[in-house]
Amino acid sequence: MFKAYFLSLALSLFITLSSFANDGYKLWMDYQKIENLELKTEVSDLLSNIYFFGKNPTYEAIKNELKLASDSWIGRSPKFSQERLTSAKFYLGTREEFSQVLSLTQQAEIKALGEDGYWMGPVEIEGKTYFSIIGNKPVGVLYGTYKWIKTIQTNTFSKDTEFSDSPKIKLRMLNHWDNLDRTVERGYAGFSIWDWHRLPGYIDPRYIDYARANASIGINAVSLTNVNANALILTTDFMKKAKALADVFRPYGIKVFLTARFSAPMQIGGLETADPLNSEVIDFWKKKTDEIYSFIPDFGGFLVKANSEGQPGPHEYGRNHAEGANMLADALSPHGGLLIWRAFVYSHEDEVDRHMQANNEFEPLDGKFKDNVIIQIKNGAIDFQPREPFHPLFGSINKTNVGMEFQITQEYLGQATNLVYLAPMWEEVLKSKTYKPSPASTVGSVLEGKETGQKTTLIAGVSNIGTDRNWTGHLFAQSNWFAFGKLAWNPEATSAEIAEEWTKLTFSQNQEVVSKVGEILLVSYETAVNYMTPLGLHHIMGRSHHYGPGPWVVGGRADWTAPYYHQADSLGIGFDRTIDGSGALNQYAPEVVKNWEDPHQIPEKYLLWFHHVPWDFELSNGNTLWEEIAYHYDQGVKEVRQMQKTWDSLESQIDPEEFDHVKQLLAIQEEEAEWWRNACLLYFQTFSNRPFPSDIEQPEGNLEYYKSLMFPNAPGI
Amino acid sequence: MFKAYFLSLALSLFITLSSFANDGYKLWMDYQKIENLELKTEVSDLLSNIYFFGKNPTYEAIKNELKLASDSWIGRSPKFSQERLTSAKFYLGTREEFSQVLSLTQQAEIKALGEDGYWMGPVEIEGKTYFSIIGNKPVGVLYGTYKWIKTIQTNTFSKDTEFSDSPKIKLRMLNHWDNLDRTVERGYAGFSIWDWHRLPGYIDPRYIDYARANASIGINAVSLTNVNANALILTTDFMKKAKALADVFRPYGIKVFLTARFSAPMQIGGLETADPLNSEVIDFWKKKTDEIYSFIPDFGGFLVKANSEGQPGPHEYGRNHAEGANMLADALSPHGGLLIWRAFVYSHEDEVDRHMQANNEFEPLDGKFKDNVIIQIKNGAIDFQPREPFHPLFGSINKTNVGMEFQITQEYLGQATNLVYLAPMWEEVLKSKTYKPSPASTVGSVLEGKETGQKTTLIAGVSNIGTDRNWTGHLFAQSNWFAFGKLAWNPEATSAEIAEEWTKLTFSQNQEVVSKVGEILLVSYETAVNYMTPLGLHHIMGRSHHYGPGPWVVGGRADWTAPYYHQADSLGIGFDRTIDGSGALNQYAPEVVKNWEDPHQIPEKYLLWFHHVPWDFELSNGNTLWEEIAYHYDQGVKEVRQMQKTWDSLESQIDPEEFDHVKQLLAIQEEEAEWWRNACLLYFQTFSNRPFPSDIEQPEGNLEYYKSLMFPNAPGI
């Protein structure tokens, strides 16, 4: 997979010698020469004559992809036949286009795969069998083609084997938090790839590669703009720009959504109110929506953050979230558009435990939302912490469409300098048992619509993509974009199988590489939790930028301070959310309450999330809580060092530019892990008044020093 | 030069098919396979055994470059010999290292080339002749190597020919206007390539390519930060980051400068004053400077913008520019550092014609600046307008070091969407006759120190570099970076010869390509002047962002409005700067005054810069002024269309991604040229009350519409 570079001769004076090696731009689509001769022959044969059963823009996109792959695999371009009866070897098309050559049973089987599904395998045409890829729609053919390409890349292709697949989630969506000035909120990979100023006239080729990358992992929807929205995106000038992007994405099966600022009728409509029940407001949104559809006939809809963190919303007018959402949904409905309404709401005027506020708001409204509304719920009730128990709303509303919001960008997880593979976190959430609405319910089964029959299903992820050449800042952060797509397509996939596939496509099929990179990936999440927020600690990051530790952060609104969350005092640490505390635990099903209400029974990873526990509380391994906290922080640092060793051992097998890139970042990660450990332990020791266990590396440095660190230009704010 | 791409098969639905074609990243260093067999044999022979007469980091950089070139030229790496007596074919080293094999005459000739000079040609060693590159210092060897590489790329190498060169300007410097949050003031190529947050731990390979590109065109100094400076760059944390960059650049002969905020003693030093005569302030700067040199032993010095556009400076304390500059110069002097002080000063409290203010400030201070101070003067007296007469200061101070400040980034020249090759503008300025201090003086001869004997010479350019993959936003803007380096090395070079070299290195040696791209390059500057500000018009751009026309911009301080500069009224148009007007013309030498004081004699390109002229004023071709203005605007649009046609005719000979990129931008440029023409002519017609000439394309649209256009997120502000 990787290439030999003469540049690997290291010069003592250069970190990397140069420059024109593998910069990571090609992501998991860095097609390489096929070394296996048998496979090469077979693939060459297929590519020598390809027939498409129809014509449409998506097939042109597929041809483009086959060209790119073929040029790299076998050093020449594929041939596309105009006449299927000549001598085509490889057939692609929709079930309908194939109908004359498929049996009714075959057709029914394929039809059952749904609109994004596909089938590939041998098809008999006029007495001969030909390898074929068949979708119910052109986009299914596209997904099938990407799957086929991956089988070649991973050397697992056999043209006699049948394979079919279809997504379990209808909308697999990226949420860009990109501002119109190209800054990206919580972006750590440079700036926004949307060059608004030069749109619509200038189409950056990167837009196409972005669409290719998304389609290759099944992502089919994108919200272009920040949820902290700017109403200007809804002006005609910006609609034309958004249209240009939608035109690029359409052949790749990707729909465009925009964020709607609830107060837009006032900002760009000249109205004095944004009251969702006001007829002028209703008219504004109807006309605005009609206008958008005049530019983008398949526009996806709006994504809205309302009445949260200062964003405008229906509460200003005494209306509830359903009234706000439904008004917008009504404007979209005639066009088949969707209204995605975020459940991430909490207020500085609300004294109730922040953990409870979203559930308190939305549970009573269950069933009051229109059919084309989806409530988009973050994985946990606080805010994308390194580890959160699942959001209670996944259990508590079941007469409303619900969707998931994951965060791919690593706001609280080391940003662009820490290697953290997030799929294990997402898998943990998706497999969490909600026990509601049914005893077997999990977050994943709720999202798939299995529990409620909801048809408009959604998994969204906050993008980690920016202008950095490798798209994601950290090369390994590509694995999170990749894994997000895979889990959104199939929430039952495992983080381990995704890690293996990503590694093979990105680095090498070499067994040592696959195994060692896999080790790094799979340990990385728990490692980060250990050195950041072990045992259920949360929200103790630096203020505002969330970079590095800040357990001492106080001042301003209570729920933006760290002590609000860790509640450390001379007796112990942790947030009592049981019935004796805030009561947030009782928003979950009784079975969950039962499992978690006893500090001796709750999985220790959630301990301090739900319980305030004495420093000498004894854990299952016999350690006291204080000791265990110290061991976790120390273990996090040690694990980073082990990741470094493992990576170093791969030097000869990884492209030198990629190797150096990751090596440098791992060195930063080690420093940052030590910083987290030292700062947090020194800080918490001021409450515990206990010595550190003697068998850990003793925290160095001075608490005042750590508190004094300032990052005035940290990215992503 | 260009490559064949299968991707060139255009699909109707895609602007560019993809993606992995030539994205312009390699600039003029996109080394290609040598097709000429004779040359290939000769080059292969040389590269088969290379001997360096010494060891140092710059030689490692040269080896790296030779590897990159060799791999592309002949498909294999060069061999570096440890023993010169074995069988080396190609020798590199300094004059001193070569001393045993060079005659005293040869040594003297090379020595005369100065510290950055080099010589290449055959050298006799033990009875045989070998091709050699010899510098006075290692950096000369580096410059010689880049020159040698260019001769291979342009197929002009002969190993029997001697060649030597040395720069005419000592400091050839890029000024980055990059902020610490990575925005770039007047940046149109994305964001700052300095990833401050991840420095010093993470060294982006792009830093090395940046250094290579600069060294390849002779640039040897860089100011990293915006002249509208942030004092944080002078904190220890940021010094460590700057040191990391300095370490990368050092082997390439590039020195780092930083911008110093005059009020830094207050912002980061805890002082209550920044008075340059205050002993605590003096002490602050001395310690700060010492600290910088502890990190960067060859630190270049400070670049300062003071008492201009709201920046702090010595005037707050009743001190003049010399007192401010000298205090900083004294802090730098023990370390051999330079203090570069900008002459771009004007005040909203000063009623005097802005054109005159810098000269008024600095002329009386001539001779009062320390030896290690350079006054950096913009090419013209206003602010990087599409065309300005040369700055009077180039004639009026001659007992002080003066340097040039060009603007490479196209703030007023179409930003990232207009193709404008700036070398003709710079050439025009450099060749302008100042008549002072001597009758033969030109701006160029003053800068070279020929007139005053000044030794510390400087040509600086405001960088057009950003995170865009092709570095400069517009592929053709690379030609401006290139040309800047070439002219800073040799201010007597012509824009035509630079255009030819850039084209050959960037696109192809094919004669048709060289000739047609040359046509486009050489017409582009006059074209932009025509559709923006013909006949001496200036500063009529949109407010603040300077994007597009804004001759109607009024309100706020007078010298930031357009009518201040165009002075259009019912009688005529233009700024009377003769003795009857502001008198600015009299800041020039009497010979200049004589040439320019009569509106019938002044070159028409400067007419409205110095004269208020009636609408019916007759020009040399018999047209009235009003007609001539209209013809110029119209001509600008027509020329853009001609550039489009010329470019289109090259489609088969240019890499498809590059072709599409430029084609899209030319289409935008055509629209913007029409916008300029229509908006300006409709606006000026409200004063002239005359019809447009019937033989021009009649301005379309409505003035109110053009005035209503808003660009709230235009880049670069």
TrEMBL record, chains A, B:
GO MF, one annotated term: xylan alpha-1,2-glucuronosidase activity
Catalysis: reaction(s): Hydrolysis of (1->2)-alpha-D-(4-O-methyl)glucuronosyl links in the main chain of hardwood xylans
EC top class, as a word: hydrolase
Catalytic residues of the enzyme: 309 (proton donor), 383 (proton acceptor), 411 (proton acceptor)
Claim: Hydrolase is one of the keywords in the record: yes
Annotated GO biological process: xylan catabolic process
InterPro entries, per the entry: A-glucoronidase_C_sf, GH, Glyco_hydro_67_aGlcAse, Glyco_hydro_67_aGlcAse_N, Glyco_hydro_67_C, Glyco_hydro_67_cat, Hex-like_dom2
Record flagged with keyword Hydrolase: yes
Positions of the Alpha glucuronidase N-terminal domain: 27-148
Keywords: Carbohydrate metabolism, Glycosidase, Hydrolase, Polysaccharide degradation, Signal, Xylan degradation
Domain Glycosyl hydrolase family 67 C-terminal: 472-695
Signal sequence bounds: 1-21
Gene3D superfamilies with a match to the protein in the record: Alpha-glucuronidase, C-terminal domain (3.90.1330.10), Chitobiase/beta-hexosaminidase domain 2-like (3.30.379.10), Glycosidases (3.20.20.80)
Catalytic activity, EC: 3.2.1.131
Residue ranges annotated for the Glycosyl hydrolase family 67 catalytic domain, each copy included: 152-471
GO cellular component terms, semicolon-separated: extracellular region
UniProt-listed Pfam families: Glyco_hydro_67C, Glyco_hydro_67M, Glyco_hydro_67N
Family, per entry: Belongs to the glycosyl hydrolase 67 family.
Complex formation: Homodimer.
Name recorded for this polypeptide: Xylan alpha-1,2-glucuronidase
Organism expressing this protein natively: Algoriphagus machipongonensis
